[in-house]
Amino acid sequence: MKQLSADAVKLGGIAYNKIEELNPLAKVLKKKHGYGEEVYGKLVDLYKGGNAFAGGRSQETIRRSKSIVGNLPAAHKLVAHFLEGDIDLAQLEQKSRSVIDAAQSQESEPDQSELVKRIMAELDDLDVDSLDSKQRKGFARKLRLVLEETEAADLAVA
């Protein structure tokens, strides 16, 4: 052997490159779904169990699971079921499709009343005196534009 490859290094029966593939999935689980360091052990157990990432080359199935888990709402129950081994990747894909579609449609259509409340709260917190003249002019221009569009729409309706 001329050099040590990632496939030659085995950690607990798993090649090092497979551990590297699990790392991005673990990061998504920690950041978005609130798992701690224990997630690494759970993922290794799932991988060694053989069924969770079935359905293709392991690198591809791990990447698909990362994509699905990353698109599910934070701390969703399907993630817990997947990590516990209750469902495999195919079931996760099937069951998550409608959940992900619903979450994406909610994100694309913001609730206007909530948006107005959030903007009003942000305006209350805004320290206009701390803005430089370019920022103040841009801010004022944007406010004028929105108000003019609103007034024009009101006149067209009346």
Number of DSSP E strands:
2
Q: List unreliable stretches of 5+ residues.
A: 1-10
Query: What is the domain total for the residues?
Result: 2
Tell me which oligomeric state these chains represent: single chain
Helix proportion range = 55-70%
Structural class by helix and strand composition: mainly alpha
Give the ordered list of helices and strands.
EEHHHHHHH
Number of helices: 7
- Average pLDDT over all residues: 82
Describe the structure.
The protein has 158 residues and is mostly helical. It has 2 domains: 6-108, no CATH class; 112-157. Helix content is 70%, strand content 3%. The chain has helices spanning 16-33, 38-49, 58-71, 77-83, 89-108, 112-125, 133-157; strands at residues 10-11, 14-15. The radius of gyration is 24 Å and the shape is elongated. Residues 1-10 have low confidence and may be disordered.
